[in-house]
Sequence to fold (203 residues):
Amino acid sequence: MIGIVDYNMGNLASVINGFKKMGADIAIESNPKKLKNYSKLILPGVGAFGDAMEHLKQNGMDSAIKEYASSGKPLIGICLGMQLLFESSEEFGDHKGLGLIEGKVVAFKQDKFDHKLKVPQMGWNELFIQKETPIFKNLPKEFYLYFVHSYHVECRDEYAIGKTYYGYEFVSAVQKDNIYGIQPHPEKSHNNGLKIIENFIKL
Fold:
């Protein structure tokens, strides 16, 4: 059984539908004490980083996610959920994250020609695989996924399994041991995204 963390940040329907389409047995979970019962965990999210962390802290879900991550079972953060895996974010102030992966979340800056980038980045863009990893199994070295975000992560290259170009290169997918994160929305990315979902289910 795969659990999807419900903390009142975003519509879970599209994520659930994407996983069910690929045959997953999935359930929404808002009780932090029950996270340990799942074989895999999804941390989704749409919205502001600070608000999301407040919601996670309200009933101890933040601590439960950290405990789950330490169990060695697969955990994936999607979009805002990926950003929450990191130590901090500069979105609307300075906010502490879950700290499961070393790095921070920053706003899109100007491109190399000093042009202001249009944010959010919204639409299809390429992800370039940086390392072999189970969640990208049987996908080409570069492929399109659907993005909607105004902030991105900065972290060491050892955690970067995917990068994307939007004005400049940024990290769009990460892995640290059993912890995965992907900035675009696989559940909205047609066949390529469904393949990522299928690969995560098979971990």
User: Anything to note?
Assistant: The helical segments are 13-21, 49-58, 61-70, 80-84, 190-201. The two ends are 12 Å apart (CA to CA). Residues 9 and 170 are 24 Å apart (CA to CA). The longest helix spans residues 190-201.
